Amino acid sequence: MSLLAITGGTVVDQLGRRTIDLAVDRATGQVVQAPSGPAADWADRVLDATGCHVVPGFVDLHVHLRQPGNEAAETIESGSRAAARGGFTAIVAMPNTTPCMDSAAVVSEVLAYGKSALCEIKPSAAITIGRDGEALSPMGELADLGVRMFTDDGTGLQDAMLMRRALEYAGSLVVDDGQPIVLSQHCEVTALSQGGVMHEGTVSSRLGLGGQPAEAEELMVARDIALARLTGVRVHMQHLSTAGSVALVRAAKAEGHPVTAEACPHHFALTDEACASYDPVFKVHPPLRTADDVAAIKAGLADGTIDAIATDHAPHTPDSKELPFDQAPPGMLGLETAYALANTELDLEPEALVELLSTTPARIAGVAERHGGPIEPGRQANLAVADPEATWTVDRSAMASNSVNTPFHGREVRGRIRHTVFNGEPVVIDGEAQR
Ligand code: DOR
Question: Which fold has domain 57-365?
């Protein structure tokens, strides 16, 4: 048996913390009982995890891969390489590609490209045809291909009746793997946010830039909580960014309504003050908010109101991001900095980080059989080896992504992915992607 060893680290997952060496059968890609004696005697490859946490590979519920349609910004391969370098072993691809992922043909194309990726590519699909908010996509047919998350991300579904119908449709679908179907919402009432390019508040007034009020997000969060209550079907709230949204979700959960939520690193690591540079690298939807909102997002992550950290990795080519602030597209890179930012900015135990970055998103994405731990014999070896003490400076020229639009360039962070193992194969060793 050809064995991979991961030695000297502390395993951290839902079973707790333990200092053990791990063995992975490279033929099956599964964790196996480590033979006794030094790893050098039984392994044909040893990954050093000294000083590191060995954790279930991260699962990102929110990634823009740009293929098909804008491969200069990102391809499935380059995005998966960025993901692997960030410790992710599964990512959910958003459907706002060109053409849109609203048909079996396009979803099949993404699945085919995903076969050779450095992590599992789980395609989501649009709720409505063309993400136009007018007619439902063939959700049943798409679910048969393995789609478990539907979203019009990039825009929210404005029509409350159509959202109700989508929830009822999703709730009626029966899928062979028994995994849940989830409708994932970009919460933004465009009638209110229209014309806004950053958060509406004192900073936008000072800068003379159009604002998007917090209420544009909160109204749709409130509406979808009501629709989840009405239909009994779960809604997942994407990239929560305001204190009001966190409070609404907290109250909905306390009342037992079927909602889950994610938050992005940029919404707990940056505020709207960053826009004072007029640098479009800080333009994102929903926009960077105030320090009070940042504090509320952190509190929501700490108390379980927010279930997952998702990156909303949104690559854009330099040409497009170099436009003036009000004309540049919104979005920022996230995959390669997510762990470091979470580890640096959140005052959470490593077990809590594993839950937010891996275990819970794996469940929401419907990939918990293969991802999200626990790390034990018989489980697929989808693992990250993270050094929580390593400090480094984010460098946009050192990214695996095809794009460079990280708002964290030059920022010193703590926590770095040393190795990533995907289906038993070391796809990142000492921070370097292996293919
Ligand atoms: O900032 C964003 N960029 N927010 C979105 O919802 C879409 C994304 C993109 O596709 O660039």
Answer: TIM Barrel (3.20.20)
